[in-house]
Design brief:
The structure is a single chain. The chain is 34% helix and 20% strand. The protein contains 13 helices and 14 strands. The chain has helices at residues 62-80, 88-91, 99-117, 121-125, 144-156, 171-181, 200-204, 224-230, 246-255, 265-268, 271-284, 297-306, 355-361; strands at residues 7-22, 27-40, 43-49, 132-133, 136-138, 162-165, 187-190, 214-215, 237-239, 260-263, 288-290, 336-337, 340-341, 362-369. The strands form three sheets. It has a seven-stranded parallel sheet with strand order 5-6-7-8-9-10-11. It has a four-stranded antiparallel sheet with strand order 3-2-1-14, with helices on both faces. A three-stranded antiparallel sheet has the order 4-13-12, with no helix packed on it. The radius of gyration is 20 Å and the shape is globular. The model has no long low-confidence stretch (mean pLDDT 96). Bound molecules: magnesium ion (MG). The site of magnesium ion (MG) has 6 residues, from loops. Magnesium ion binds at residues 190, 192, 215-216, 240, 291.
Length: 373
């Protein structure tokens, strides 16, 4: 049966981070997010876009996403409704690329549909709803002393994996310091595309630290160089930025570009894309984990639900919201205990919006209705 959609609201919010978060590309001080609300007969579903104001991660931007959503995807949804959220990705191939814009709207429809049916999102997706093992992703610190202190706090809190950001010239010092202080902790590094094949010898020198994986060492859209690099390292390579569709995940696995996969619904194009990518990974026994984009409560809740799908066998980035924000846009605290994140109970993504705080952090807001088209 086709679900009609009465309205779609696109809202841009700006929420300060508790402290700046640095990787090899950019320092984030405020989270700017596109929040999508879809409504029908008094029930609302929510999605959160992970595109940034400027293309620091992949090409999509907040302004570009608002155009794609407002002028193409939202009118399509209002005009035709939705018979099955899993079919939207295929229906929206008339818009080239822009997986993050598509995901923000598609995820809101999944949430709406699950709430209408009175089932939790994990059930609609085919997950198991069990608590999700999580690790901590730590930004570039001012020095190794400060980093070790931060690692110690997270190890004490029970996080199941520590991932540290690295950049050229700092990687050996950073990893040596953490490994010396914590010989047994599950450890990985994320380069956010900072290296080239010319750095192969230096990256191979990280093999002695027993890392779980090196995340996205090379170019943000590359598969082939990663396959060349993977053949020369003992440490597994995990891809993040390069995987912008389920088809790219399949291709990466076929060429041997990675042996661990970071799943992000926004980057892949939505929850149906996550299901397809997860199926591709399970078929060849490659472990997955759910990555993070400093999500607010709506995106974080979606991540928790999707990470209960089969094959998410490594700790993900969906750590406690309070690590990143002093106040979140949802009422339910999304906090990990001993490295486990419980799935928010109730229909859909299981969280409710803190309306007064949401209004306080809103930059722009536009409501689309079928009547306006
Ligand atoms: Mg990453």
């Amino acid at each position: 049966m086709t679900t009609a959609v009465d309205f779609v609201e696109l809202r841009v919010v700006r929420v300060p981070l508790r402290q700046p978060f640095a990787n090899s590309v950019h320092v984030t001080t405020d989270k700017v997010a596109v929040l999508v609300t879809v409504g029908h007969e008094g029930i609302e579903g929510y999605g959160e876009g992970v595109m940034e104001p400027l293309p620091w991660f992949r090409e999509e931007t907040v302004d570009g996403a608002l155009t794609v959503l407002g002028e193409a995807l939202v009118p399509d949804l209002l005009r035709h409704g939705c018979a099955d959220p899993a079919a939207l990705a295929d229906r929206w191939t008339f818009v080239r690329g822009n997986p993050m814009a598509k995901a923000a709207l598609e995820m809101a429809v999944w949430d709406l549909r699950a709430r209408q049916q009175g089932v939790p999102l994990w059930q609609a997706l085919g997950g198991d709803g069990q608590p999700v093992p999580v690790g901590a992703a730590l930004g570039l610190a001012d020095g190794e002393g400060a980093l070790i202190e931060t690692v110690a706090q997270h190890v004490e809190q029970g996080y199941r994996r520590i991932k540290v950001k690295v950049r050229p010239g700092r990687e050996q010092d950073i990893v040596t310091a953490v490994r010396d202080a914590f010989p047994d902790v599950a450890l990985s590094v994320d380069a956010n595309c900072a290296y080239t094949l010319a750095d192969t010898t230096m990256l191979a020198a990280l093999d002695r630290f027993g890392l779980d994986y090196i995340e996205q060492p090379l170019h943000w859209d590359d598969l082939i160089d990663h396959a060349v690099l993977a053949a020369q390292l003992d440490t597994p390579i995990c891809l993040d930025e390069s995987l912008n569709s389920p088809e790219r995940v399949t291709a990466a696995l076929e060429v041997g570009a990675c042996s661990v996969v970071n799943i992000k619904a926004g980057r892949l194009g939505g929850l149906a894309a996550v299901q397809r990518a997860a199926e591709a990974c399970r078929r060849v026994g490659v472990p997955m984990w759910c990555g993070g984009m400093l999500e607010l409560g709506i995106g974080r809740a979606h991540n928790i639900h999707l990470a209960t799908l089969a094959g998410f066998d490594l700790p993900g980035d969906t750590a406690s919201a309070s690590r990143t924000y002093t106040r979140d846009i949802v009422n339910e605290p999304l906090e990990a205990t001993a490295g486990l994140m419980a799935v928010p109970p109730g229909p859909g993504i299981g969280v409710t919006v803190d309306r007064s705080f949401l209004d306080a952090v809103t930059v722009t807001r536009h409501r689309h209705t079928g009547a306006s088209r």
